[in-house]
Design a protein that fits this description.
3-stranded antiparallel β-sheet, alpha+beta
């Protein structure tokens, strides 16, 4: 499990739940349920980090605090 903030919301456009990981640019996933979107976001986070390591790109440390307020 990763310690990055995940923003979870319903998207009428996509007709699905969307989970964004704002500390990892472009890292997001979707699912038919909140649980599925979160599971897919964890998988996307792992792939994002693996790809960054492969290309020698920096991997941000999780801030461990709320990033965005609604």
């Amino acid at each position: 499990m990763y310690k990055y903030e995940v923003i979870l919301y319903w998207s009428n456009v996509d007709d699905a739940f969307v989970a964004e990981v704002p500390e990892l640019p472009g890292c997001m996933a979707h699912g038919d349920t909140q649980e599925a979107a979160l599971k897919h976001a964890n998988e996307a986070t792992a792939l994002w980090i693996d790809t960054a390591r492969e290309f020698g790109d920096p991997i941000p440390e999780p801030k461990g605090e709320r990033l965005i307020l609604a």
